[in-house]
Design a protein that fits this description.
The protein is an alpha/beta fold. The chain has 11 helices and 8 strands. An 8-stranded mixed beta sheet has the order 6-5-4-3-2-1-7-8. Helix 3 links the parallel strand 2 and strand 3 (109-114). Helix 4 (121-130) runs parallel beside helix 6. It is globular, with a radius of gyration of 19 Å.
Length: 325
């Protein structure tokens, strides 16, 4: 019920009142374990050789993660789903599974994205007892295409074996949830046909916590050709719904600002609400309301406001989507 009340306030401020000031805490929080990755996939901003020019590489510490959880817990946020991915591969951070354990003890359900290369059997077993989680892992129906996009020979079979083991763990552990996304369409392959082939690689009678989908690719750092489908501008809801926190505590407006181009405050220095309703966040939202996203560095080249069907931008669709997160 608290989630629904917060979403109603969100919808009022974003869609009806169109206000840059908000009276509720962030609905979603994203915390970055690290911005280091062991791959440089073609579709990812990490493939840009200048990717780290804007902020240095680093890793989240146990102490700072606890501080972030403390501040999130006291701000009144109602959503207990916690996203643990921004930039980078989370398992690069040796404390990542400990983060999930710490969050689970406070009642959070952790969601994260991983390339799956580092989730060996030992880590999978530790994950299964750390707390409930949903892992989003990219895979493919085609070994050659997958390894071309990923840039690493032998990783197709490595990730396939890791996924098979995770699926077996999920059979006896309802805390383990997997979203497996097919990236084959990045090469131009038919997404629907490829998804069917990829699904067939894992047999039948899989646990209900295993879901398959095709990955949709977006241009959010200027690294891809824009996928915008039309010229109609829509106001992005992310700055009214989400706060993303880098490993160093910088708060950015959404999960697409992986290079930290729009830093709106630092959670090590201020409380959540002082940042969330502070002058930088309000200015960021107002630029979007004025139809001037180019004034926000994080929004330059992002195709989200110009993509998707019209129904995607109706308040009912947005609220239903957020309720699932």
């Amino acid at each position: 019920m608290r989630k629904l009340r917060q979403l109603i306030k969100l919808g009022w401020a974003y869609k009806i009142k169109k206000s840059a000031s908000v009276s509720y805490p962030p609905y979603q929080f994203t915390i970055e374990p690290t911005n280091i990755c062991n791959l440089s996939c073609d579709f990812c901003p990490q493939s840009d050789p200048n990717h780290f020019d804007s902020r240095p590489v680093g890793q989240l510490t146990i102490e700072n993660f606890k501080t972030f959880l403390d501040k999130i817990s006291i701000c009144g946020a109602s959503n207990k789903n916690l996203n643990l991915t921004l930039d980078g591969e989370p398992f690069i951070n040796k404390n990542f599974i400990s983060f999930i354990e710490m969050a689970a003890k406070r009642g959070y359900f952790c969601v994260f994205a991983s390339n799956g290369t580092l989730i060996n059997q030992e880590k999978a077993d530790r994950l299964s007892t750390a707390g409930p989680f949903r892992a989003s892992i990219d895979f493919s129906s085609d070994e050659k295409i997958y390894e071309t996009i990923r840039g690493k020979k032998g990783h197709f079979e490595l990730v396939r074996k890791n996924l098979v083991y995770l699926m077996e763990v999920a059979r006896s552990n309802s805390n383990v949830h997997l979203d497996i996304h097919d990236i084959t369409s990045f090469s131009g392959a038919d997404a629907e046909e490829s998804l069917i082939r990829m699904r067939g690689l894992f047999g039948e009678n899989l646990p209900k916590q295993i879901r398959f989908a095709s990955r949709q690719f977006h241009n959010f750092c200027g690294h891809l050709k824009s996928n915008g489908s039309d010229t109609n501008y829509r106001v992005c809801p992310y700055p009214w719904a989400q706060m993303a926190i880098t490993h160093s505590g910088d708060c950015v407006p959404c999960c697409r600002d992986t290079t930290g181009r729009s830093v709106l405050g630092n959670l090590l220095e201020k409380p959540v609400m002082d940042i969330w309703n502070g002058p930088e966040y309000r200015k960021f939202r107002q630029n979007l309301l004025d139809g001037k996203p180019e004034k926000n560095l994080a929004c330059v080249n992002c195709d989200l406001p110009f993509s998707g069907k019209e129904s995607r931008w109706r308040i009912g669709y947005i609220l239903r989507s957020l309720l699932k997160r």
